[in-house]
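Entry type: protein chain
Record version: 2
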Amino acid sequence: MKETDNCPAPVTVESLASAVARLADEVYLSLATIGTALTTLWDGLTEKLGSVPRSTDLAPLRETIVGELERRGNLFDGAGVVLAEGLLVDQPRHLEWWLPDVQRGPRRLMLELNPQSEYFYDYTGMDWFVIPRDQGKRWVDGPHRDYACTNRCVCTFAIPVTTTSGAFLGIAGADVSAASIEEVLLPRFQVFGQRLVLVNSEGCVIMGTDSEFRTGSKTSRTDRSAAAVPIEAMPWLLQPLGSIPSH
């Protein structure tokens, strides 16, 4: 055996991009569990009832959603399902979305879904709902300020959920705070020895090793002489930072 065989592989931008992708895959794994629970419940309800389910019929989803919240610990700020319009007999729009609460236990998020209200929360026009619905693929939106729930800067992960026959039911989603993403990834990034930022497709910073580029800021002032590395199956890039031009 060579002496170098036990040496750890060198840290590269590509290996760090893979670490980001693995973290995202863990999030999507939880969403797949929640989505499968919705599909199974919906198929069972429509077969048993022979009619359109009511919002109260979705109560059994709580166990699965809360189970994933507990499984992911501090990573999730909230998770659940958001239904397509007009699916339920008693509610034109509906969410089964749960928030962790260490002191009181998980609590269900209640939002104003009445279009006549000035506080109407119209999720049907939001990218995390529209893209999975229209393109049939997983998505992550943000970072954005989550005024409806925690008032923290989050990324909303989502996947489309369908019936067994393929009809769109809605999305399974989770809010993951930028702070939680940073907690997992920053120690890895710091080992690299160069400045890095993780950005979305619009150049908006999710996290990084340079304090100048805070979450939500733009990277337009960076020297992009080094090529950004895309994150597999995500609209994110890992950008090495060159020197910032002086002004």
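Comment: The helical segments are 13-49, 61-72, 127-135, 178-191.
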